[in-house]
């Protein structure tokens, strides 16, 4: 006779379990691991002196193993009379203080707050094979919540399938508790040959106090506990962990990544659980025939400071890197900020075992070759660091660019996408013995997005006489605001203002990027409050510069009639922004760039005459020359933009 049910719904049927345990006899059946696999998590949250409820005990050995370690106050319940009889016969003499009672976990006979701890190892998963059985499982969760004491813990060992995870969140989202999820080892349950990850849900019951809500936390990596702002955020973190396990299995069993799909993962150091030490991208060669590759797999270490460069920062660049390496699969690894690296040998020692889990099928080598650029792991020159309460640490660092030039980048948190960049020059002091002083080159915009925005802003002069003022919402590092204030003010605008609600970014702009004195900075603690304080239709041009699109409506009301509105956005939000601009202006145009799209709206089409454009370009070039600044890049952008406008490559949105 088969011990497995004909369908999953039988797991929730009492008669099925009676037959199961009668057939199996006294041979133990442990869901999701035995004591050795669960000991760490159990001892972390359940103490030997606790009164413990084992929910749906079955004939698992977990209670017996805990009893033998002095956990003597254990009450075991199960709906199967057969298994309760078996376990009482087995343990009555050996473990006399431990009890086994037949009881329905959805209608328990215990009083309120009777237990300090409760453990459920697979019972919820059995009661909830699908959402049709949700009401039954919610009854059990309600009952366990009732019988555990305040500050007691309810431990649920589960595969955390979608319907189980959402049911758990629904059950506890309106209760005052700490809801924490740990990832345990992989189970023996297989799906298409894949061992599924096991999770422990630790729910700590708290006393209700005014204003308190559920605290959502995950501990999905060793020594790393994250607090989440919502249940949706926790759900996403658990699903990402499950995705990683599934993908890791697929990658090592012949799965070919689709073109452009480069899954990334972060690895942490136990001593610094909040800051990732390594970020990795799995990149397959664009050549589809794996049989053509003699070399299967290698790891490329991106030197420190090079993360923002095109070969490593973009999917296209990493694909080109993989193709040029000659390997079927390349694991691209960046060395994240906040850590010290003592050389390539140290990195190899830390990663050699970890990276083999991403090797493609057919890899015979037990070790992997590590590649890098000639300069090795590089040196990170962090010139300024501060904290942002909302987005994390802010780093300003100088890296060597092309032709040995120096480029200054600003990064927030662990992201390798700079929020601002500028070129740096070194000017020697009059006293040759003194150290050189680094100065930011104001006239050059490193970001192509910012160069295009500045060039479009120049064309405001085509709308009529010099407009009253330009407003930039979002300072970032101040590079765009400084450029416009220094070189376009007086040509297209009488004045340039900028709104910024993040004081840490103001500090970065002022201390690291030579923020222009010609810029009127409007700062405070809230964008909404700052924008409310500005007069309606008082700006000839408004630029939404990398801030939340929630500010779109408030910013649009500030544009004068016949004025210009500019916004940079990504592909996800482009359609929403375009719809809003089309409902506000007679004309809405868009330019797509690799890093995003620029949309602008106005009531009159920008169709400049050659003479007028020449006059504008000449004025800007003269300003650049008069300040001893490099004009080549920006002049080129002006020319390209002129061609774009005339040929209507700016698509009408």
Keywords:
8-stranded mixed beta sheet, 653 residues, single chain, alpha/beta, 4 domains
Question: Would you spell out the secondary-structure blueprint of this structure?
Answer:
Elements: H1 14-24, H2 35-45, E1 52-55, H3 62-67, E2 74-78, H4 81-91, E3 99-102, E4 115-121, H5 123-127, H6 134-147, E5 148-158, H7 162-172, E6 177-191, E7 194-205, E8 215-221, E9 224-228, H8 231-251, E10 264-269, E11 272-284, E12 297-302, H9 310-313, H10 315-325, E13 329-335, H11 344-355, E14 369-371, E15 381-388, E16 392-400, E17 406-412, E18 420-427, E19 437-440, H12 448-458, E20 470-473, H13 479-487, E21 496-500, H14 503-512, E22 519-523, H15 527-532, E23 539-544, H16 552-556, E24 559-569, H17 574-582, E25 587-593, E26 596-602, H18 610-626, H19 632-647, E27 651-652
Parallel strand pairs: 1-2, 1-4, 2-3, 4-5, 6-8, 12-13, 12-14, 20-21, 20-23, 21-22, 23-24
Antiparallel strand pairs: 5-7, 6-7, 8-9, 10-11, 11-13, 15-16, 16-17, 17-18, 18-19, 24-26, 25-26, 25-27
Helix pairs in contact: 12-13, 12-19, 18-19
Strand content: 25-35%
State the helical fraction. 25-40%
Number-wise, the strands total 27
Structural class: alpha/beta
C-alpha-based Rg, rounded: 31 Å
Instruction: Say which CATH homologous superfamily of the largest domain is assigned.
Output: Vaccinia Virus protein VP39
- How far from one another are the termini? 67 Å
Count of separate DSSP helical elements: 19
Predict the CATH topology of the largest domain: Rossmann fold
